[in-house]
Amino acid sequence: QMRDFGKKYGGWIIAAVVLFLAASGGWIYWQQRQVQQSGQQVEQLAEVYKDIAGGNTTAAPQKLDELAKSRSKAVRAAAMFTRAAVAVQGNDLKLATAKYREIANDDGLPKTYRDIALIRQTMLEFDRLKPDEVISRMAPLAKPGEPWFGSAGEMTAVAKIKQGKKGEAGQIYAAIAKDKTVPDQIRARSIQMASSLGVDASQIASAPAQ
Q: How far is the C-alpha of 24 from the C-alpha of 49, rounded, in Å?
């Protein structure tokens, strides 16, 4: 039975094995090529950073736009964030906002990248947004323990003040002051803001974490 099977299907089996090996070899080559391209792009990105540090930003936008097409998530995100930063430096806030929005909406990038892009986008748009829009946008991030609680919480608190909800804003500032994962500068600012709103956050901030 095995001999008859081999006679009947042997040619197809050999062809399938050859195709499998060819496909595997092609995949391995593609993977290696991706690694090489990523390495080259990292070097290109480093050169762009060097140019920017030296004050030469003329060619940076075009190079960054090309690198933003990279298959590497890290390279793509770094290029897009840098492009937005260059736009801010050039006072092109409209372009910078658009770039941050693009990052925030890119489902192919890690959530951490998208979250910080949303925060920076909101910072640039803050004066043009309605308070309830700021609060809604920052809601997932303005929670104790979240990586960007400090920045998201501050914007939420200011939006609450604009709504006339100073008591709620003071409690948010107090929560920021209490969160030991928030940068010290933001916590110190939050203590001052909470106090100005009638909430004593100094003792809360100095209390040991539960």
A: 37
